[in-house]
C-alpha cells in the first residue's frame, strides 16, 4: 500500500480589503483580481498570493497621526 497524500487545489489567498485612497492597494488589488481569475491571461495563483500579502503588509500612515 502506497502512502500518498492528495492535496486539493487551493484558492488564491484573498487579500485584506484594500485601504481606501491607497494607490498601492488599488494597483495590487486589481492585479490580484486578474491573477486569481482562472481563464484570465494573467492567471497565476502564486502571484495572487504574493499580491495578497503585499496588500496586507505595505505601510499606511496611521489614522490621525504622522506617517
Structure characterization notes:
By secondary structure, the chain is mostly helical. It is 39% helix and 0% strand. The protein has two helices and no strands. The chain has helices spanning 23-35, 45-57. Helix 1 packs antiparallel against helix 2 (45-57). It is elongated, with a radius of gyration of 16 Å. The relative contact order is 0.20. Residues 63-67 have low confidence and may be disordered.
Number of strands: 0
Structural class: mainly alpha
How would you sum up the global shape? elongated
Number of helices: 2
Helical content (DSSP H or I, runs of 4+): 25-40%
What is the first-to-last residue Cα distance?
60 Å
Could you describe the largest sheet, including whether it forms a barrel?
Answer: none
Helix-strand string: HH
Radius of gyration: 16 Å
What is the strand content?
A: under 5%
Provide mean pLDDT, rounded: 79
Low-confidence runs (pLDDT<50, min 5 residues)? 63-67
Structural descriptors:
single chain, 67 residues
Provide a quick synopsis of the model.
This protein has 67 residues and is mostly helical. Helix content is 39%, strand content 0%.
Topology:
Layout: H1 23-35, H2 45-57
Helix pairs in contact: 1-2
Amino acid at each position: 500500500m502506497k502512502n500518498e497524500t492528495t492535496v486539493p487545489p487551493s484558492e488564491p489567498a484573498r487579500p485584506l480589503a484594500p485601504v481606501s485612497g491607497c494607490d498601492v492597494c488599488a494597483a495590487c488589488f486589481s492585479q490580484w483580481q486578474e491573477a486569481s481569475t482562472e481563464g484570465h491571461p494573467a492567471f497565476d495563483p502564486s502571484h495572487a498570493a504574493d499580491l495578497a500579502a503585499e496588500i496586507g503588509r505595505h505601510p499606511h500612515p496611521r489614522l490621525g497621526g504622522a506617517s
